[in-house]
Amino acid sequence: MYAKLTIPERLKDLRVVDKHLTLEQLAEQTGLSKSALGKYETDDYKDISPFAIATLADFYGVSTDYLMGLTENKNHPNTELQSLHLSDDMVELLSSGKINNRLLCELATHPNFRRLMIDMEICIDQIANMRVEQMNLVLEATRQTVMSKYAPGEDDLYMRTLELGQVQESDFYSHVMHDDLDSIVRDIREAHRKDKTTADPQPTLDDVKEKFEQAIGQGSDTEMLIHEFCDKLQIPFEKISSEDFSAFLRILSLSKQLKSPNNMRGKASPIPPNRKARRKRK
């Protein structure tokens, strides 16, 4: 995930995410040609006319500075720092470039972030501590009373239930805040699933096996060797994980013999294409 959007990424983000428009629809509503708009959203295209910048900024309701990458603010380019109520340490951190400010903004503007902040505040201010401690005291008092009166033993089902029913404050809040944060991270990750910096989806075991069977059908020496290797050593092919299979392929790819079906050992090297053989001097 890039810390800062490029100009083409900003244009495409505004069109697709904010306005939900196709290039054809955008061309109709702005009067700019579809081909030009498509070029503006291409990474290697940098020649955007001032007229197009002004037109698109007005259409999207953002500043021209935002479109040109001079600011990260679409609608509040001149907000005073004092009104943000940031500490000096926070200002220095945001200005340092050491963190991904874009990711931080998406985290803070997520609908569930306010709930995370509330749960953190409850934990820090120990607002619910008294109630939790009272519940634990009641359970522990009940457990000790039963123990002294009936002596059922520590491993008794009911004694163990009364013990496990007592909530540890740190564990409880860790679980609650983990759930809050996890829901936010999942949504942000899904939103960036198609980003250029996002890793490609890893193939499943079924995908790898399907490709393997296809390769065998085509007579691939490498895949046939793996199949033969498994048969000889009585290794169940269906139990091989995709990671192990991929690692096996990488190891076999180092073999010169597998890369060249005909073993050339002891034979003259063939003449490379587009190159004439030299004549021997007499």
Automatic annotation (TrEMBL):
Region (Disordered): 259-282
CDD domains listed in its UniProt record: HTH_XRE
Domain annotation HTH cro/C1-type: ranges: 11-67
Gene3D superfamilies found in the cross-reference section: lambda repressor-like DNA-binding domains
One Gene Ontology MF term: DNA binding
Name of one Pfam family that matches: HTH_3
InterPro entries referenced in this protein's UniProt entry, alphabetically: Cro/C1-type_HTH (IPR001387), Lambda_DNA-bd_dom_sf (IPR010982)
Source organism, top-level taxon: Bacteria
Protein name: Helix-turn-helix domain-containing protein
